[in-house]
Amino acid sequence: MSDNRDDFIIAIRYALLKKGAKQKFSLFFLMMLSIFVITLDKLSVPFIFSTRAVLNDLVYQVSVITAIPGKLVNSLNQIQINHFNVINKNKILKEEIEILKNDRYNVLFLKTENKFLKEALDLGSARTINEESSIKARVLIDQESPYLKSLIINKGKKNNIIKGMTVFNNNYFIGVVIESNYLTARVLLITDLNSKIPVVIQDTNVNAILTGTGKKKNLKLEYLPDGFVLEPDKIIYTSGKDGFLATGLPVAETYLSKKNKLLIRTLGDPQQASIIHVTNGGFNN
Amino acid sequence: MFTPLKTIFKNNLAVIIFYALSFHTFTGLKEIPNLPLFSFNLQMIIVYFYVLKFPDSLGLGHIFLAGIINDVVIGTPLGTSSFSFLVLSFFTTYIRDHTLRPKMAAEWTAFIPALFVSNFSYFIIINNFSHLSFYYIEMLRVTFFTYLFFPFFYYLFIIYETKILKANA
């Protein structure tokens, strides 16, 4: 019995300490080194921040180069799909233009009416959101990972991008900066499991937390009041209760799936983002 | 005097692919649009295969460094992937030392506990050293397809290492 145990311990020790003919390090040394690196990362020692920032910048730049062939294949595929979709889209767009033309006349009428009513009530000009300074950035890496849904952008601390800034694509909120290096930054997408945004639902006073599901566009609402029934085709806006995001930014919408199930999806498509805007909270186009 | 670039590339293909995958966070056929089902961890297959069959072709230092790069690209705590790959290497070394007559089927079966131990160490580090949430189903799916695709890459690498490299030697 004790012989068997001794053999097992010897075998493990041999596997850990043995070095091959061309191996420079033993497994034991490298495993200890990994644990040391993990511990340093966890303890947040000051020098590890700068080291990690330099390492991040370096790896991201190399990653951009290695991702070129993959991106080329994807873009060629996208061009092909777009080519076949263009006729159908044209038909739909023509119909939409007609509807929008009618809506525009209605809007013009409502604007005029609103102006007259304001004058009658002596309200003066409405308060507008202060123009936020937004920083334009390009998406360097948007590869999918099973662990984290994030983007790497080509602006960092050098361009005044700091942790916590909000990111928009085509006027839609898509994520928050979670890591800022000197030349690059990482954006956590709203579709990630770790993303939590305080929101309010259209035509209601109901507050909730919008959370990612890890899927491409789908999201879910948490902390809804008991008995509240969500309706389809409702826009979900930021409530601004976190004190950082501006109030009333459209984030997601509810819709009925093919199986007649009520789901929530993002308004912007983070997967398609190539040029994004980074702001201090709200985006005023 | 100087080794031609082509020869360096041929002799170190495993290392080059391994580093390229680390920089690119390759998740299998998921890269191809409209094929969301098949995602597998090719890095795990490479580590397991080369440590098992050709340990001198893929150094442990390379495994550690590629793991660090992988962590930077994915955004997990530094050293997590390295540790996970090294645990896999350790398990594989143990299997290699205790195998008298290597057979593909036996090695494929031994890949299950190897993957389990490696992913288990990954879970422990992520859960204790970071605030990240985990896509457990996605991980399970990736692990399953990693296991399933192993024989294909096994024969591919065997052909490359035994026939192509030896023919050119």
Molecular structure report:
The complex is a heterodimer of chains A (285) and B (169). Chain A has helices at 2-17, 27-43, 46-66, 68-121, and strands at residues 135-141, 150-153, 166-169, 172-180, 185-189, 196-201, 207-212, 218-222, 235-238, 250-256, 262-266, 275-279. With 285 residues, chain A is α+β, with helices and mostly antiparallel strands. Chain A has three domains: 24-55, no CATH class; 67-127, no CATH class; 134-285, Rod shape-determining protein MreC, domain 1 (Thrombin, subunit H, Beta Barrel). Chain B is mostly helical. Chain B is built from seven helices and no strands. Chain B has helices at 5-11, 13-24, 42-53, 60-74, 80-97, 104-129, 136-168. At the A-B interface, helix 1, helix 2, helix 3 and helix 4 of A face helix 2, helix 4, helix 5, helix 6 and helix 7 of B.
| Structure annotation, total helices of chain B | 7
Question: What count of helical segments of chain A does DSSP give?
Answer: 4
Using DSSP, what is the number of strands of chain B? 0
Q: Tell me the distance between the termini of chain A.
A: 76 Å
Note the overall shape of chain A.
elongated
Q: Report low-confidence residues of chain A grouped into runs of 5 or more.
A: 124-131
CATH homologous superfamily grouping of the largest domain in chain A: Rod shape-determining protein MreC, domain 1
Mean pLDDT of chain B: 82
Q: Give the proportion of residues in helices of chain A.
A: 25-40%
Number of strands of chain A: 12
Number of domains of chain A: 3
Sketch the topology of chain A as an H/E string, one letter per element.
HHHHEEEEEEEEEEEE
Shape of chain B: globular
Major β-sheet annotation of chain B: none
Strand content of chain A: 15-25%
Sheet/helix structural class of chain B = mainly alpha
The CATH architecture name of the largest domain in chain A reads Beta Barrel
Mean pLDDT of chain A: 80
Secondary-structure element order of chain B, N to C: HHHHHHH
